[in-house]
Amino acid sequence: MIHGLTFKEYIEEEKEKIGEMTKAEKISYFKDYYLKYCILALVGLVLLVWIGIDLGRGFRHTIVTGGVIGVHLDDEGTKYLTDDYMEYLGKGSFSNKIDFAPYIILDDEDYQTYLAFQAQIATNMYNYLITTKKGLAFVAQSECLADLDPILDSELKAEVSDRIFRAKLGESGEEIAAAIDISDTAFVKEYIITGEPVYFIITGKPEDYEAGLNVLKYILLKES
C-alpha cells in the first residue's frame, strides 16, 4: 500500500490530481516527485542490460586461441586471424570469440618471460603458435607441441610436405614433425615483418588440435 492506499487507488488519485493541473504545474510536479525515480529506474535498467551482456560475453564459446612469438604481426594480420577468421567461419561475435596474443615476448635478459610462457603452454593455453626458430626450439624443449605426422590429413600433408620442419623434443630426444615453415606464404609476406623463417606449430590438447589445423588451412588459403 502507498500512503494507506492500494496501488490502484493511488494511481487513480494521481491521475485525478494531475488532470486538474495546468501544463506548467504538471511539469513542475513531475520534476519534484517522479523525475528522480525515473532516473534511478533508467540507471537500474542500463546496469541490468550491461550485466546481462557482460555475463553473456563471458560465456562465449572460444573457437581458437593463438599467439605470435618473436615476429611483428601488423594490425591487418591480427585482424585476419581474428575478425576476418570469425567471418570466414560464419560465426557471430556475440556467442563466440577468438583469443589471440599478437606478440609473445621471450626476453633472454628476463627469464621470467620464459617461465610465464612455459606455464601457458604447459596448461594448454594455445591451440597454435606462429613463431621464429627460437620460439619453436623453446616449445620443443618443453615438449608441448604436436607431432604433425599423425594429425595432418592426406590433402593438407600433400600441400605442406616440402615445408615440414622436424625437431627433437626436450627430454625424450624424439624427432617429430614439429612445424610448418610458412615463410613463403602470402600471409607472412603481407602481414609479418621478419628477416628469418616463420613457423606454424600446433599446441594444446590433442582433442583440440583440429582448431589449430583449421587456422593453418585458412592461412594457406590466402592469396597474394
Distance between the termini: 73 Å
Number of helical segments?
10
What Rg do the Cα atoms give?
Answer: 29 Å
Main β-sheet, in a few words?
A: 6 strands, mixed
Structural category is alpha/beta
**How many DSSP E strands?**
8
- Secondary-structure element order, N to C: HHHEEHHEHEHHEEHEEH
Averaged pLDDT: 84
Strand order of the largest sheet: 3-1-4-8-6-5
Shape call: elongated
Unreliable segments of 5+ consecutive residues: none
How large a portion of the residues is in β-strands, by DSSP E? 15-25%
Helix content: 40-55%
Supply database-style keywords.
224 residues; alpha/beta; six-stranded mixed beta sheet; two-stranded antiparallel sheet; 10 helices; 19% strand; elongated
Spell out the blueprint of helices and strands.
Elements: H1 7-19, H2 23-33, H3 35-58, E1 61-69, E2 72-73, H4 75-81, H5 83-89, E3 96-104, H6 112-122, E4 128-131, H7 133-141, H8 154-160, E5 164-168, E6 175-181, H9 186-191, E7 192-193, E8 199-202, H10 209-221
Parallel strand pairs: 1-3, 1-4
Antiparallel strand pairs: 2-7, 4-8, 5-6, 6-8
Helix pairs in contact: 4-5
Question: Please, could you describe this protein's structure?
Answer:
The protein has 224 residues and is of the alpha/beta class. It has 10 helices and 8 strands. Strands 3-1-4-8-6-5 form a 6-stranded mixed sheet. The chain has a two-stranded antiparallel ribbon with strand order 2-7. Strand 5 and strand 6 form a beta hairpin. Helix 4 packs parallel to helix 5 (83-89). The radius of gyration is 29 Å and the shape is elongated.
